[in-house]
Amino acid sequence: MSRQKTIFVCQNCGYKAPKWLGRCPDCSVWNSFVEELTEIGPQERGKRQNLADRPQRIDTVTLDKEARNKTGLSEFDRTLGGGVVPGSLVLIGGDPGIGKSTLILQVVHKLAQKGLKTLYISSEESIQQMKMRAQRIAVDSSEL
Length: 144
Hints:
Blueprint: E1 3-10, E2 16-17, E3 33-40, H1 74-79, H2 100-113, H3 127-136
Antiparallel strand pairs: 1-2, 1-3
């Protein structure tokens, strides 16, 4: 017995999404998604993408080369395996006062200088505190 599922399809490139998106992540066209109903058979329910069909030994897995954005901060790039993966979320944790906010402000500045879009989220600092830190470490710019 099959059931119906709603998907949203980009009319420009055919990209499929589980919810409506304002802009297609594949072709970057705005307002191109239309709602479609599709049949889901019992064999497709609960199926997830990017999962192996059967167990595999780790040494048999092949990796695609991921593009990484180097920040120019060598230890930071090394820690992340060569740079920041586009679209990734990096969460920095540690004891108070060890320089987490200063480090991330430097990283965001370096990436913004390359024309990349970044988002710095802080749950403990006010925007004024961030501005003062940016001025102190000389990364206060219109890109941040």
